[in-house]
Description:
This protein is an alpha/beta fold. It is 45% helix and 19% strand. It folds into 2 domains: 11-181, Rossmann fold (3-Layer(aba) Sandwich), CATH 3.40.50.1970; 184-364, Dehydroquinate synthase-like - alpha domain (Dehydroquinate synthase-like, alpha domain, Up-down Bundle), CATH 1.20.1090.10.
Amino acid sequence: MPPPVQPVRPVFVNLGPRSYLVQVGRDLLKTLGEEVNKKLPDRVKCAVVTDSNVGPLYAETVLESLRSAGKEPHLITVPAGESSKSLSWSESVLGEMVRAGLDRKSFVVALGGGVIGDLGGFCAAVYQRGIPYVQVPTTVLSQVDSSVGGKTGVNLPAAKNMVGCFHQPVHVVADVDTLDSLPKREWNEGFAEIIKHAAIRDASMFDAIKNIADGKGDLVALIRRNISIKAAIVEADEFETIGTRALLNFGHTLGHAIEAAAGYGKLLHGEAISLGLRAASWLSAQISDLTAEDHDKIVSLLKRFDLPVRLSDDFDTEELMRIARMDKKFENGKIRFVLLRKPGDAYVCKDVIEGHLKQALEELRK
Ligand code: NAD
Ligand code: GLY
């Protein structure tokens, strides 16, 4: 008999009337229905939105758990991958929610990685002007980052996350056991966001990350630590208005441009962010106080997870700049670019100009 699973204290995301718990641990899918009932006792009908990889693995457990708790779930499956995070797929999901008879008293369960969390959350946000949703993240990236904080949305062909809204989940269940089925590449990409969290907020986490790369260390504790970092930042600046939440964009200005230029799905989100992290770390060493040694530490950690740190010559600098200009971090021609003073200490710099970004892109090719 395996030893009993020790419960881990959930992370509370304190957002006043929009507060919620993030459960993190093992073997949590079975009790999802019970937990949902605590938060949404009077709601019965729901859509479980998932993708074609995750559905066959975990949907039945989730549907069964919801049914045992008296809910009436309807499964909606979209193709796996970033291209489902689109307006046309959101229209399909919303249409299926109508056909399944969901109304204003219904809710959504987003079961999958960040694509499903963003798409399912967006559908919940706009369906009949907004119904609640529960996040059940199944990738490293979605457990440590995208399932917490309420950013929902879809891409436009021209640029990432161009359509969306803030809509906090009412509950999050991060079952670390689901990560056992993640392919290696998808496992690795999640560490780009973990390394980002260490770089901007918690330099002492670098050692814990190294331990996981070495096949030791406590994965549940590392994921919980990252959820706490994300939760604290979201609590400080829910709607990204005072510059604190913007720190989470470290590596994302160029990362998003690279992701969109590659064509959605060619580079995984975390892989594009890895390139963006190297570029932003290099700029931090050029125009801020990051030491070359700390820059190298970040880059070598990215490499430990086989994350890309060199930009292929297939990418054209002018094209990347054109896409970057559409980013929400460009405002009236100015860039809100996140730099590091040292590991764990990030700030929004207003002095970064386009020439700096071009230099960083050239450096990325070396
Ligand atoms: P993803 O959802 O595409 O998942 C990656 C791949 O893993 C997919 O093929 C999926 O089918 C598969 N998969 C998921 N869980 C699995 C499991 N347990 N076992 C086997 N296969 C599994 O991608 P992602 O990396 O999780 O998320 C990336 C998305 O998240 C991007 O669209 C990004 O913009 C978004 N994001 C959003 C936020 C936010 O705050 N909302 C933050 C960071 C990233
Ligand atoms: N991942 C960026 C944010 O949640 O703000």
